[in-house]
Amino acid sequence: xxxxxxxxxxxxxxxxxxxxxxxxxxxxxxxxxxxxxxxxxxxxxxxxxxxxxxxxxxxxxxxxxxxxxxxxxxxxxxxxxxxxxxxxxxxxxxxxxxxxxxxxxxxxxxxxxxxxxxxxxxxxxxxxxxxxxxxxxxxxxxxxxxxxxxxxxxxxxxxxxxxxxxxxxxxxxxxxxxxxxx
Length: 182
Known about the structure:
The chain is an alpha/beta fold. It has helices at residues 3-17, 47-53, 102-111, 124-132, 167-176; strands at 43-44, 57-60, 73-76, 92-94, 114-119, 135-138, 145-148, 153-155, 160-165.
């Protein structure tokens, strides 16, 4: 059995065992490093953002299995742990699935400690974040290029913004030199 067939078997087994989970909240594309089925939510924050921030997070709450190697987090919540169900602890990093970010944004606001990379939109969830976040940071132009599951760089059609909750995270924004903090 080749690697792709083996990975397909593992993913199929995992998906069957997770059938009780709500697929409207979860990106069912785990096994990202073995199978790239091109879902629009398989975009990872580029390393230069974390290099500029220069901090370690307690949790990456929207991670692929195994985490993203350059995201400095002590713990990575994947689809298996379900970051919408598992309690968040400490300073969190949240780059939610952009196809359905509302529940992630609400939990980020309720948690009140961390940073979130989110697409700008006219949605109710973005409006709530705009009203509640302690700070926002514009990222430098041109638009950000994410890292895809196959390691390539790819932009998206929407501008994104970093949001911070908590005084220490606002201070980190200001010290990073990434962009203007508001």
